[in-house]
């Protein structure tokens, strides 16, 4: 069994502080993480070594035992697997414990990432820091098979625009894991079309005591009779009298959340002109997502019938326009 130099693995001195060890681990973990190096077996092996080294050196108890072992490794090696005996003064059963701050990945998490049932930790680690000692390959594989995190479940969910703007609570009937269940889901205010809402623990159930997966709802907004939706922006048509479009004035607009606002119509506004109301579209989702805008499109309303007086006024206007 080969001695593992964990200090060399992380590239730090034996006198390194806890902070130095954490920084070295983070830097190397980012470099060799499987997500950054898909399909790279050498990077996978290096990541396992880095994780194992940090598991020991970030834990005060394990690091103390490891440092004691390092100074007497040859003595242990000559004595064989039974250790140097009572005179050596080593008590490996107490090497476990939490502590250490920045968390490494557990054996189960590493198995989930890399697959397979074999332990991601070396025989050296399993001998001295594995708690109950090394497991057989069969035991490790059986454990890997029995403990599995549940899978995430994806569903599309149709929502009306008002519920998306205000937020709402819905009771869903789901069927997976061979059973039907009722789930209460809180939709936050400000979700847009395509937003994903996470419901923790409502995916398929885990095995062997592992956590269940999550439920993800992809929001699909129903068409609205008044507002057209583009991202978080809303567009609506507003009927404006021809006199207001020509001379300018104001019209009343009701926003999605039911607020009535007065909108100034500039003189000479043509049909189809857009007037922008900032921040009156769909509300923002949390602090980082700003609210959308509301665009009012001018729809000039022509009179369907004319009184004698109105006709006379339009005829006079026609004569004036003909002279221009």
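Q: What amino acid sequence fits the structure above?
A:
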């Amino acid at each position: 069994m080969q001695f593992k130099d964990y200090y060399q693995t992380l590239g730090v001195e034996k006198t390194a502080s806890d902070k130095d060890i954490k920084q070295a681990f983070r830097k190397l973990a980012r470099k060799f993480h499987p997500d950054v190096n898909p399909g790279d077996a050498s990077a996978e092996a290096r990541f396992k070594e880095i994780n194992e080294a940090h598991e020991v050196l970030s834990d005060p108890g394990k690091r103390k035992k490891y440092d004691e072992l390092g100074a007497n490794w040859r003595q242990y090696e000559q004595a064989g697997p039974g250790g140097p005996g009572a005179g050596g003064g080593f008590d490996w059963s107490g090497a476990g414990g939490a502590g250490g701050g920045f968390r490494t990945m557990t054996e189960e998490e590493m198995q989930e990432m890399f697959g397979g049932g074999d332990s991601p930790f070396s025989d050296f680690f399993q001998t001295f820091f594995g708690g109950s000692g090394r497991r057989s390959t069969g035991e490790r594989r059986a454990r890997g098979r029995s403990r599995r995190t549940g899978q995430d479940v994806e569903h599309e969910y149709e929502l009306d625009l008002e519920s998306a703007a205000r937020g709402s609570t819905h009771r869903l009937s789901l069927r997976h894991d061979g059973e039907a269940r009722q789930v209460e889901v809180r939709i936050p205010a400000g979700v847009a079309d395509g937003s994903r809402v996470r419901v923790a623990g409502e995916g398929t159930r885990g095995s062997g005591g592992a956590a269940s997966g999550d439920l993800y709802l992809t929001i699909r907004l129903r068409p609205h009779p008044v507002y057209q939706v583009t991202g978080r922006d809303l567009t609506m048509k507003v009927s404006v009298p021809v006199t207001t479009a020509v001379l300018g004035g104001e019209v009343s607009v009701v926003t999605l959340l039911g607020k009535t606002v007065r909108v100034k119509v500039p003189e000479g506004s043509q049909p189809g002109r857009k007037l922008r109301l900032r921040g009156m579209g769909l509300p923002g989702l949390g602090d980082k997502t700003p609210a959308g805008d509301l665009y009012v499109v001018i729809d000039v309303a022509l009179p369907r019938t004319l009184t004698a007086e109105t006709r006379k006024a339009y005829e006079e206007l026609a004569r004036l326009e003909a002279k221009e």
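Q: And what stands out in the fold?
A: The chain has a mean pLDDT of 80.
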